[in-house]
Design a protein that fits this description.
Rossmann fold; alpha/beta; 15 helices; 390 residues; 2 domains; single chain; 6-stranded parallel beta sheet; 43% helix
């Protein structure tokens, strides 16, 4: 099968969507399919020769450091390549979503869409009243979905959200996948010592880790308030926040304002190949995010053998199992802190959760999830044919 993946962001930018696409591309290619990635141009970046079939579309960087671009409509070159695809799979409902939908309609191709996040959680980035922005987002997604033959939900918990958006069509659950083996590898002591020195970490500390974008939609103010409460009662805890993002300066300032500079380390973007080294520093993975759909960062932490403490929410709650590989807290500061303290103070519980986390992560291998995605493409082709026979 020839598969065209359309995305508003790709290498050299690394985030959850990009990592998901990389995993599916690799898994689908290993099954004998040809996968083309249609993505923006990135000035000064040369594609990895091993990453075949990357089709760059004319684009212009958006303000800020998000890595996202405004993408211009498809030109003749892009259309000629898209014409050879059996299915078009888009990962964003906005600019690239409109472009992919237009191409699919013009070329009579099946269109698949993966809903990666709860988009209304990002309304604070738009300089307009939040209620108006959220309404506009939901309306845009509902209208966009009318062009889609099959919707992919990476986790069951997002389906009610999609129905609330007004999505009426078929929704299949296909989890995002990762390279499990990468995160199970034992990290050399020398690499850990190097990072301990770089971040001025104390060997006596129990290190908590958060990985992901440094941005308010990840509920990081809540996370810092929880850690401040934890730190007043526990002298030997340290939080490391790994990821970089559009609000780095604001959160560095907040950490300073909360007098947590000696207890919280916040990094910039970390190359993906170094992420397992950072995870190996920690005793516990923590996140308060409620905007996720199927967070690869949590799966990566589980594969690295870290127990989780998370906030109960759609997406994150579908990946972990309370009291099996994690402790799931209510959306309440005291309960979140209590769950962290419980894992840190109970070595038997910590060991049990950590052991099970590795087992739980296995089902999210990109090789397994790409088999499910191929079945979804075959179903989309059938649905598209039926739709056009009416």
């Amino acid at each position: 099968m020839r598969i065209g993946i359309f995305t508003e962001v790709y290498k050299p930018v690394i985030n959850g969507v990009v990592n998901s696409i990389i995993g599916f591309k690799r898994g689908l290619e290993e099954q004998g399919n040809e996968v083309y990635v249609f993505c923006p141009t990135y000035n000064g970046y040369k594609d990895d020769p091993s990453d075949k079939n990357i089709v760059h579309m004319r684009s212009k960087p958006l303000p800020g450091a998000s890595g996202y671009h405004f993408i211009f409509p498809a030109d003749k070159r892009v259309l000629e390549i898209a014409k050879t695809m059996d299915v078009i799979h888009v990962h964003h409902p906005f600019v690239m979503g409109g472009i992919a939908a237009s191409i699919a309609k013009k070329l009579n191709k099946p269109l698949v869409f993966t809903n990666h996040t709860q988009y209304e959680q990002y309304a604070h980035y738009v300089p307009a009243p939040g209620g108006i922005v959220k309404y506009s987002i939901k309306r845009r997604i509902k209208n966009f979905m009318k062009n889609v033959d099959l919707v992919i939900a990476p986790a069951k918990g997002i389906i009610p959200v999609l129905r609330e958006y007004g999505v009426e069509g078929k929704i299949n659950i296909v989890p995002n996948g990762i390279d499990i083996d990468r995160f199970k590898k034992e990290v050399p002591i020398s690499e850990l010592e190097k990072l301990m020195g770089k971040y001025k970490l104390n060997h006596k500390d129990k290190i908590l880790i958060y990985t992901g974008r440094i941005a308010e939609e990840k509920n990081l103010t809540f996370l810092l308030k929880a850690f401040a409460k934890l730190a007043t009662k526990n002298a030997n805890v340290h939080l490391i926040m790994v990821g970089g993002g559009p609000q780095m300066k604001e959160f560095v300032g907040l950490i300073d304002k909360m007098h947590l500079t000696e207890r919280v380390t916040i990094t910039d973007y970390v190359p993906y190949e170094e992420m397992q080294n950072h995870l190996a520093l920690a005793s516990l993975y923590v996140t308060a995010s409620k905007s996720e759909v199927h967070p690869l960062t949590i799966i990566e932490g589980m594969a690295a053998g870290l127990p989780m403490v998370i906030i109960k929410a759609p997406g994150t709650g579908d990946v972990v199992t309370d009291n099996v590989d994690s402790l799931v807290a209510r959306d309440d500061l005291d309960d979140f802190v209590a769950k962290i303290e419980r894992v840190l103070s109970d070595s038997a519980l910590h060991e049990r959760l950590a052991r099970q986390a590795v087992i739980s992560a296995e089902k999210y291998s990109f090789r397994e999830t790409s088999k499910e995605m191929l079945k979804a493409y075959e179903e989309a082709i059938t649905l598209h044919s039926k739709r056009h026979l009416k």
